[in-house]
Design brief:
UspA; Nucleotide-binding universal stress UspA family protein; elongated; Rossmann fold; alpha/beta; Rossmann-like_a/b/a_fold
């Protein structure tokens, strides 16, 4: 019997986790999957009496049940589960990712003072989870825009099928267009020269777009309802994606390249994106195996 996958969301009662809960509710409804609302707690002061710990646990239960009740009352999700864990939140979310379709976490803006917040939970989960992770970004409640932005897929020469499949799947279920973009850094005439590049930017962009179109053709055939735009842009990939994120609903990038290390572009967009970011990991045991396109893939890389 096939195990039913689920959408997992980390929830701690903060405004940022409320953003994550809203996104996760959408995902569960669109995918018709159960939703698991997870909250972690732990006693931070060393040894303590069990009675003292019990008070903290009850407070944690109150936070968790509030989030789960919100999901039940504000959505049509058939099954909402409350998951209380004593220990590190990041550890529990990575554990749950092994049987999840998607993990959703909240994040605050990645300014100089806030980067450690991403590194402590969202960044760790994005680097170590077994399934795609959506880090929901932006100030305040998620707005309902009059004109919804596209799904932006950040591509590279070695983009994995899982990341492409996830991006097409999200665009399909959300009825959004997809913008596939690849930033190309132009090289100077020689390694000793600071002069103009050897190739015109327009020529490089056109060649790059042709390669991208060939790569995406099978996915476009499987998702005919998704309108696709392909852009090869002269410039650092991390800057190109950050610029596009201002008008996008979601940016999709590849995940860890091994041992929990995110690539520089992925790290940058997690810190700078103006919209939610989906990090799609590399399959641990299928590095060289071809993966057939699917509606929404469970893993991938940039």
């Amino acid at each position: 019997m096939t195990e039913t996958r689920e959408v997992v969301v980390g929830y701690d009662g903060s405004d940022f986790s409320m953003q994550a809960l809203e996104w996760a509710m959408d995902e569960a409804e669109l995918r018709q999957l159960p939703l698991r609302v997870a909250h972690a707690w732990r006693w931070p002061y060393g040894q303590a009496e069990e009675e003292a710990k019990l008070h903290l646990r009850k407070a944690a239960e109150h936070v968790l049940y509030h989030g789960a009740d919100c999901a039940r009352s504000c959505s049509s999700i058939a099954e909402v589960t409350a998951d209380l864990y004593e220990g590190p939140a990041a550890e529990r979310l990575v554990e749950l990712s092994a049987r999840a379709e998607l993990v959703v976490v909240g994040s605050r803006g990645m300014g100089a003072l806030a980067r450690t917040v991403l590194g402590s939970v969202a960044g760790y989960v994005a680097a170590h989870a077994c399934c795609p992770v959506v880090v929901v970004r932006g100030p305040g409640p998620i707005p309902v825009p009059l004109r919804r932005g596209a799904v932006v897929l950040g591509m590279a020469a070695d983009t994995r099928d899982e990341a492409i499949g996830f991006a097409f799947g999200e665009a399909d279920v959300r009825q959004l267009s997809l913008v596939a973009v690849r930033g190309v850094s132009l090289q100077p005439a020689s390694w000793l020269s600071q002069g103009p590049p050897t190739t015109e930017p327009g020529t490089v962009a056109k060649t790059t777009e042709g390669e991208m179109a060939e790569r995406l053709r099978p996915w476009q055939f499987r998702h005919p309802e998704v309108a696709v735009r392909i852009h090869g842009v002269a410039g650092p990939p991390k800057d190109v994606l950050a610029d596009l994120s201002r008008e996008a609903s979601l940016v999709v990038v590849g995940g860890a390249r091994g041992y929990g290390r995110l690539g520089s572009v992925t790290r940058s967009i997690l810190q700078r994106s103006a919209c939610a970011v989906a990090v799609v990991p590399v399959p641990a045991l299928r590095e060289e195996e071809d993966v057939a396109p699917a509606g929404v893939a469970r893993a991938g890389a940039d």
